[in-house]
Amino acid sequence: MTPGHHQAAEAPFDWEALRKYARDAMSRAYAPYSGFPVGAAARVDDGRTVSGCNVENAAYGVALCAECGLVSDLVAGGGGRLTHFTCCDRAGNILMPCGRCRQLLWEHGGPALLVDATDGVRPLAELLPDAFGPTDLTER
Ligand code: THU
Among 10, 16, 56, 67, which one carries the catalytic annotation? Predict the structure, then answer.
């Protein structure tokens, strides 16, 4: 180490720990109609971890995606910005968020939100290009 440079390198983000939160939430999903339980988890910029699972309904179209629960957890817990996000299927494998949920994530994480994608970690801007967002309401 160069003398005078005593700062430890920042630890890499622990994606595996975040995936464990998502799997845990997935294990409590309520998905009796699709048989497709989903879990989602995210890190917040204040260090919190938030999570959610899908919650279906006898009126099929009313189903809540796992990301809906995650966003509710975020806001009810004091808000903040999402920095890292992961989602999983029943096998615990990475699942890409549906289109509507990418929009939900955009609102609370923006273009820089890091998403645990099946082909590697990618910023949300790549997964929701030319997104409509909060600034469109104020800048036009
Ligand atoms: N689902 C999610 O929870 N999140 C997604 O991003 C994709 C889809 C849920 C909705 C429904 O309960 C089940 O997966 C099958 O579509």
Answer: 67
Length, in residues, of the chain: 140
Q: 36 in ligand 1 pocket by Cβ < 6 Å?
A: yes
The CB-side HSE value for 56 (13 A sphere, CA atoms) comes to: 14
CA nearest neighbour of 87 among 104, 75, 107? 104
Written as tens digits, the pLDDT of the chain (140 aa) is: 456 566 778 899 999 999 999 999 999 999 999 999 999 999 999 999 999 999 999 999 999 999 999 999 999 999 999 999 999 999 999 999 999 999 999 999 999 999 999 999 999 999 999 999 999 999 98
Question: What is the pTM for the complete model shown?
Answer: 0.94
Q: Which of 26, 28, 38, 51 is the best mutation target for the ligand 1 pocket, counting ligand atoms within 8 Å of the beta carbon and taking the most?
A: 38
Q: Is 28 helix (H, G, I), strand (E, B) or coil?
A: coil
Q: Which domains does the chain have, with CATH numbers?
A: 15-131 (3.40.140.10)
Is 69 near ligand 1, meaning CB less than 6 Å away? no
